[in-house]
């Protein structure tokens, strides 16, 4: 993936934001947040976004959601102990899948950009996105 469009690196375009605390165990030998830890934090941010949007895939009855594709661009360094600000916004909704853009900042500096393609699935395979998620997603979409 080439370096992201600078417009994707503007936190103001992302309606959802949450802070994820960093842990000492997240750092590598160079005292940076480890790439694997950052990917785990991106997952946590997606889960928090889904809860805020009223879409709790995999909880109880009904469809689940899975990552079909994820790309991560590491654009800066992050350090312990400052939290990471995770900005999340759907960029596209399809029939059974959707694309989430994620921007990671720390102390106002861009750390990473990720894009995840999520697929809604049930026991038979890909399933339509829940109507409740589709109808509430407009307020969460990437801003122009």
CATH superfamily: Hotdog Thioesterase
SS elements, strand count: 6
Remind me, CATH topology?
Thiol Ester Dehydrase, Chain A
Estimate the global geometry from the Cα principal axes. globular
Q: Please trace the helix and strand order, writing H or E for each element.
A: EHEEEEEH
Mean pLDDT: 92
Radius of gyration: 15 Å
Number of helices: 2
Which class in CATH terms? Alpha Beta
Sketch the major β-sheet: 6 strands, antiparallel
Q: Which architecture name does CATH use?
A: Roll
- Computed structural class: alpha+beta
> How many structural domains in the coordinates?
1
Task: Describe the structure concisely for a colleague.
The chain is an alpha+beta fold. It has two helices and six strands.
Folded structure, characterized:
By secondary structure, the protein is α+β, with helices and mostly antiparallel strands. The protein has a single domain (6-140), classed as Hotdog Thioesterase (Thiol Ester Dehydrase, Chain A, Roll). It contains two helices and six strands, in the order E-H-E-E-E-E-E-H. Strands 1, 2, 3, 4, 5 and 6 form a six-stranded antiparallel beta sheet that branches. The relative contact order is 0.24.
Characteristics of this structure?
144 residues, alpha+beta, Thiol Ester Dehydrase, Chain A, 6-stranded antiparallel β-sheet, 2 helices
């Amino acid at each position: 993936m080439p370096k992201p469009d600078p417009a994707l690196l503007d936190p103001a375009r992302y309606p959802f934001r949450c802070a994820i605390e960093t842990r000492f165990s997240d750092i590598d030998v160079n005292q940076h947040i480890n790439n694997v830890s950052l990917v785990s934090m991106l997952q946590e941010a997606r889960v928090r976004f889904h809860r805020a949007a009223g879409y709790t895939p995999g909880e109880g009855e009904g469809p689940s959601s899975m990552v079909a594709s994820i790309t991560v661009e590491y654009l800066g360094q992050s350090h312990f102990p400052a939290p990471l600000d995770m900005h999340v916004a759907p960029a596209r909704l399809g029939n059974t899948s959707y694309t989430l853009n994620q921007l990671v900042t720390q102390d106002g500096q861009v750390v990473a950009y990720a894009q995840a393609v999520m697929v809604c699935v049930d026991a038979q395979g890909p399933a339509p996105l829940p109507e409740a998620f589709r109808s509430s997603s407009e307020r969460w979409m990437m801003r122009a």
